Amino acid sequence: MGVDTKKVVLAVGLATFTGVALYLLYKKNDEDDELEMYAADTATSRHTLIEMVIPRNAVGFVIGRQGANVKEIQEITNTRINFKDPGGPTDDRVCVIRGKAENAQEAERLIQRAIAEQPKLLTINISVPQRACGRIIGRNGDSIREMCAVSGAKIIVDREFRTPADGMRLITIKGTEDQLSTAKQLIQTKVEEEEAMQRRIELSAANRAPRTKHKPDAGKSQGAGDQPVPTRESLVATGADGYLEVYVSAVDTPGHFWVQVKSPRAIELDKLVERMTEFYSEESNRNMYKLKKVAVGDVVAAPFPYDSSWYRAEVTELAENDSDPDQTALTVYYVDFGDTDTVQRRQAAELRTDFLGLSHQAVECFLSGVKPSGCSWTDAAGDCFEELTYAAQWKSVMAKVVRYQQAGSRKVPVVELVDTNSELDVDVAKELVKRGHAVWAKSGATGSREASPACCS
């Protein structure tokens, strides 16, 4: 390469370096200008933080349902709003507002206005019939939760039922005036639905013919092989909480008897008996469902010897007739009423499968707190008990489960019975003692056979 060529290359190199240097200088100046502009803008838009105390009873209203109110204030004022965790369950909350000074102040003003305008919270107490509480609360609390959601009010049913005399239970409602009004209307609708159902139940009971008094055969009426008689879930669930309306359907002794729960199931049972009676009254149907074989523990269709109706019955004992199997004597326990009686095999029939759907309605019970005044319960004591409880007359009394007692393989509810059909309540156990048919038992004893005095052994 010649000297002239080297000079050209050097000149080009110097020119390139000079251009790059000038570019970097100008770029730095531009960046400095941008930084100064950002700093100036930041100085004029610095965020302000405002903390304000919110009364505990106003926090929910300020936040709104699912945060709707506080979100709206944030959008209007272009701020960020948060709440600090309280120091304790009764402390007020601290609201933190972040944003431009004028925006934060506007958000503070809107929150203060919301607090001032929040509806006044009220608390009222209302009384409803005890028997309507199940419908108000609903299965697993579904009904009362729905009413709370619809009305916006808080609805609390008193857990204690202390007034069996008037049959009422207290309900507390908390909320705004509008929420209280809506909640009361929803509760009243449930009460009216229950009253309408009760009228249908009472009409159904009024149409029942009184069952001829026939005492169950103690020891055979418990079901085959001393198996547990199906117990109504409603009696178990309600008994721990208060009183329940029942019909005394069958009596062994004043200390040992059966009840049916007064509920919509009573209407279902009447319809079932009507359908069974209509079906098995036809000879052709009985022949179609003739008992070809039968064993202890089978549930069959059987007539009751003292009326013209057909019922579901469990075979508890067989007395074989080798010369004529159709005349084999079946001791049967009527699972929906508690009676026990004897019918011939030819009089009974196989139970059609669609008649099995309804749970057994008879609930075996012991009377709480008393035992016979003598060695055993007398006929006079039995007659007195049947009179006091309207046995098999389909007039209800109040029952309360106080505990359960083991009887063979069964856990039998031990109950108090109170007649509330007149102006003065009548405690059945107290009345038996007052009339000389019973004495008070030791704590834990019942009026069942097991509680009889030692002279009976």
What does this structure look like?
This protein folds into four domains: 47-116, 2-Layer Sandwich (Ribosomal Protein S8, Chain: A, domain 1); 122-206, 2-Layer Sandwich (Ribosomal Protein S8, Chain: A, domain 1), CATH 3.30.1370.10; 226-263 and 361-456, OB fold (Dihydrolipoamide Acetyltransferase, E2P), CATH 2.40.50.90; 265-355, SH3 type barrels, CATH 2.30.30. The chain has twelve helices and 19 strands. It has helices at residues 3-44, 59-63, 68-77, 101-117, 133-137, 142-151, 177-206, 233-239, 264-280, 283-288, 379-389, 428-434, and strands at residues 47-54, 80-84, 93-100, 122-129, 154-157, 168-175, 244-253, 256-261, 299-303, 310-319, 329-334, 340-344, 349-350, 363-367, 370-372, 397-407, 410-419, 426-427, 438-440. Helix 3 (68-77) packs antiparallel against helix 4 (101-117), helix 6 packs antiparallel against helix 7 and helix 7 packs parallel to helix 9. The longest helix is centred in the first third of the chain and has 42 residues, at 3-44.
Task: Describe what is shown at a glance.
The chain has 457 residues and is α+β, with helices and mostly antiparallel strands. It has helices at 3-44, 59-63, 68-77, 101-117, 133-137, 142-151, 177-206, 233-239, 264-280, 283-288, 379-389, 428-434; strands at residues 47-54, 80-84, 93-100, 122-129, 154-157, 168-175, 244-253, 256-261, 299-303, 310-319, 329-334, 340-344, 349-350, 363-367, 370-372, 397-407, 410-419, 426-427, 438-440. The longest helix is centred in the N-terminal third of the chain and has 42 residues, at 3-44.
